[in-house]
Amino acid sequence: MQPLARFVTQRPWWVLAIWALLALICAVPASLAPARLTADPGALSSSESGQVIDLLSQRFGERDSNTVLLVTQTERPLSSPAVAQQYTAFVAGLQKVPGVTRVLPYNVQNAVQVSGEGSKLALTLAQIPLFKEATPALERIRTYVQSQKKAGFDTRVTGGQAIAADFTKFAEGDTKRSEMTALPLIALVLLFVFGALVAAALPLVVGGLSITTALAGLYLLTFLIPTSTFAQSIITLVSLGAGIDYALLMVNRFREELKSGAVGSAAASPEAASAEAAYRTVMTAGRSVLLSGAAVTLAMAALLLPPIAFVRSLGIGGVLAVLFTVLASLTVLPALLTLLGERVNWPHLAFKGFRALDFGQSARESALWTALARRVTARPVLAVALSTLVLVVLALPARQMQTGYAGAWGLVEGVESRDALAAVRDLGAGGLLSQFEVILKVRGGQKYGPQSRDAFRRTVRQVEALPDVKGVISPFVSAAALSSASGGGGSLNDLAALTRRSFSTDRTLLRFTVVPNGYLRADQIDAFEARLRGVLSAAPFDYQLGGAPVGEREFSKAITSSIPLAIGAVFFGTFLLLMVAFRSLFIPLKSIVMNSLTVLAAYGVVTWVVQQGHFASLLGLPQDVGVLDSSLPLLLFAVLFGLSMDYEIFLLSRVQEEYLRLAGQPQANNESIVLAIGRTARIITSAAVIMFIVFVAFIFGRVVANKSIGLGLAVAVLLDATIVRLVLVPGLLQLAGKWNWWLPAWLEKRLPKVHWEH
Predict the structure, then answer these.
(1) Domain boundary among 523, 553, 583
(2) β-bridge partners, 403
(3) What are the angstrom distances between the C-alpha of 140 and each of 166, 436, 723?
(4) Cα-Cα-Cα-Cα dihedral of 600, 601, 604, 605, to 10°?
(5) Same domain assignment for residues 148 and 199
(6) Which element (helix H / strand E) includes 266?
(7) Which residues form the domain of 466?
(8) Per-residue pLDDT tens for 157-177?
(9) CA 654 centroid distance within chain
């Protein structure tokens, strides 16, 4: 730390020039990053559903299995001649849109049928390519739909591609709006905290620099792997949250060092005093920032463990945010402090009523927080019991947590793809987005023939008879159904199309599509799939099962199955880090347990509100989500566990400092806890208020996953900065006594030394 501290305080203009150049270089790629992000999780190439996609493409020649659903609403019934003519012209124009390979009004058996007599709703299916060609094709469809809107004739677009596009669009918009909403409020709180305009601006500078540089890194990442649109939200949350925490600690320590008589007497000039104060700040508070950054990085790295590039991009975004935030806090911030000196307190603003909270530049010990600490340490058993009870009660709903892909229901009402899907559901066609693709292989390497035809027909009929199956798209369609499907004509063409889609080019693979009665939520997929696999397992074919529901379930299980390993790795890394830093076995164990309780409480609240729908409407959340996004538990754990370490390290480093100073005195343990609370509570409380504002801003977005993250983080930071850090942790430290700092002698000799503020 010494070479770094000397360089940034002796060459501040060089440091600022380097950062200014870096910010200019990163500005353009940072602005381009959001457009390259995606909400499409992709497929697991080695999974069963991924293999089915490959087979459909390579063996069946399937190139346009991406379905866009268009729901047309009319003022008059579709059966009226004028409206029917208008709808026919709309369909004809849709067929000419580049990228659209096929257009069909809806019927389960590949039919040409609009909704019933007297209906004012029509459902149209447009087939577009998969992968890279899908996005431009969807955009052209939406442009065409907009051009066809007239009075009494309105069309909305939905489908898997449209839902993913809306996720990307609104997640980006939510992030920008959250930033714009939170920043003025953050600035106002910082003014109260520091009582000076210049000091209040410094945390925002650190946050802005870290966001810009991290987004530029994310832009480069998009060329390597599919990058989640939620990575932008993670970067904003972590950069603002951690950046403001670190800046609060650093600026507060710098002001203390400036006021120190020792620094003042040692300095030959105000400039030298500023440089020395900044140097001392890096060497003391800077160490806390470095350790905290290491802890947060460990936690965010947990997202790198699931074998899914989409999820790993979230982890990389979080790690980038932490690294650039720590770097900015340890370089550009002390460089600015060196140049500012006493001007950091300009202009001094006085706010009545805040002196009691000790937010400003008053005494280092706050009477309010010191009094609270004495009450807690006087009754540690009661404090620990009550605070633990509160956290456990809040965590109880997490036992019913169900995860999966929410699809369009992961968007709020008012978003086109969600509202259109609700209309599709009302038409009885919601199962179109939950189709299962079945591929059968004729055993013995034989080609399809009369014997396998009978077995194929029996298998299809058995699947059709399963509960909640609306229909099966197969070559076994009755003449009456085919005639109805074709509107009384064209049955031979339809039969030929069904035959082409049902047999591989070498006729060794067979295919049919199962359409459920309705859209299957994540918590409904397993039961339906189990019934379907029961029939297929008894059939005289080898089979593979794919489709959107199977892919969603595999994707979710790939994430959830990696959670134990991710959590274990974070626990292990954190334990080692804190053991080295605090020379203790109890401190890291206690920190892991306390942070885990906070995470579990946040899980419980999110489950109770988002999944179960309690008070959901008050937060603008839909009440029919039913599941939490599969990445949410791991994502919340990584962010919460990491950011909670900020408070933990701020407090414990001061407790250790005071304990070492008071070593040998009868009440050293008790007094060190009380003094540490008195001297750090204002920093913890100030940081918590600011982070709470950042997280709450995300609750008012239109993407449920973002709202869930914001809710979970807001609840956690509120609990962590109050019940956990100011009641539960002091109570446990008081009960542990001398065991707080116990370390076996043989281990003490082998651990590297870490020096804290003094």
Answers:
(1) 553
(2) 628
(3) 15, 28, 53
(4) -140
(5) no
(6) helix 261-266
(7) 417-553
(8) 998 889 888 888 888 788 788
(9) 33
The two structure tokens encoding residue 292: 């905290």
Please indicate, yes or no, if residue 425 is contained in any of the structural domains.
yes
Mean pLDDT along residues 626-630: 85
By CB neighbour count within 10 A (0-12 exposed, 13-18 middle, 19+ buried), where does 138 fall? buried
CATH of the domain at 523: 3.30.70
Task: Report how far residue 318's alpha carbon sits from residue 320's, in angstroms, rounded to the nearest whole number.
Answer: 5
For 336-350, the pLDDT digits (tens) are: 999 998 888 888 765
The CATH number for 116's domain is: 3.30.70.1130
| pLDDT tens-digit series, residues 377-407 | 999 999 999 999 999 999 999 999 988 887 7
Tens-digit pLDDT profile for residues 82-114: 888 898 899 999 999 999 988 876 543 333 334
3-state secondary structure of 150: strand
Beta bridge partners of 121: 73
655: which residues sit within 8 A by CB, 6+ positions away?
A: 672, 673, 676, 733, 740
Cβ neighbours of residue 323 closer than 8 Å, sequence gap 6 or more: 293, 297
Rounded Cα distance, 612 and 603, in Å: 12
Closest to 319 in 3D by CA, of 128, 107, 570, 565 = 570
Q: Please indicate, yes or no, whether residues 456 and 323 belong to a single structural domain of this protein.
A: no
Residue 223 belongs to domain with CATH number: 1.20.1640.10
The separation between the first and the last C-alpha atoms of the chain, rounded to the nearest angstrom, is 15
Place of tokens 């040409």: 112
Whether 544 maps to a domain, the answer reads yes
Considering 359, 377, 398, which residue would you say is the last residue of a domain? Answer: 359
Cite the DSSP H helix spans in 132-159: 134-147
Contact, 168 vs 39, CB < 8 A? yes
Contact partners, residue 530, CB within 8 Å, separation at least 6: none
Give the span between the Cα atoms of 615 and 304, in whole angstroms.
Answer: 34
Per-residue pLDDT, averaged over 701-712, amounts to: 89
In contact, 645 and 292? CB cutoff 8 Å: yes
Hey, is 542 helix, strand or coil?
A: strand
Examine residue 29 and say whether the peptide bond preceding it is cis (omega within 30 degrees of 0).
no
Instruction: Write the Ramachandran bin of 358: left for phi over 0, alpha for psi from -120 to 50, otherwise beta.
Output: left
Same domain, yes or no: 76 and 29: no
Does the pLDDT at position 445 exceed 80? no
**Are 152 and 185 members of one domain?**
no
* Element containing residue 423 per DSSP (H, E): helix 416-426
180 and 81 in one domain? no
Both 241 and 267 in one domain: the answer is: yes
Residues 355 and 474 in one domain: no
* 223 and 348 together in one domain: yes
483 by DSSP, 3-state: which?
helix
What SS3 state is found at 734?
A: helix
- Report how many domains make up the chain: 3
Judging by beta carbons within 10 Å of its beta carbon (0-12, 13-18, 19+), is residue 225 exposed, middle or buried? middle
CA angle 569, 573, 579 (to 5 degrees): 145
Is residue 519 in a domain? yes
Structure confidence at residue 715 (pLDDT) = 94
Is residue 705 within 8 A of residue 633, CB to CB? The reply is no
Between CA 7 and CA 373, with CA 187 as vertex, the angle to 5 degrees is: 85
Alpha helices in 611-667, H assignment, sequence order: 632-661
| 123 and 429 Cβ atoms separated by less than 8 Å | yes
Q: Which helix (H) or strand (E) holds 442?
A: strand 436-442
Distance, CA of 622 to CA of 375 (rounded, Å)? 43
- Alpha-carbon dihedral angle through residues 577, 581, 584, 586, given to the nearest 10 degrees: -50
Q: Which two tokens stand for residue 285?
A: 């508070």
Quote the pTM value: 0.83
The answer to whether position 645 is within a domain reads: no
In the chain, the percentage of residues whose pLDDT exceeds 90 is: 33
pLDDT of residue 530: 94
> DSSP 3-state assignment of 626?
coil
- How far is 137 from 579, CA to CA, in rounded Å? 56
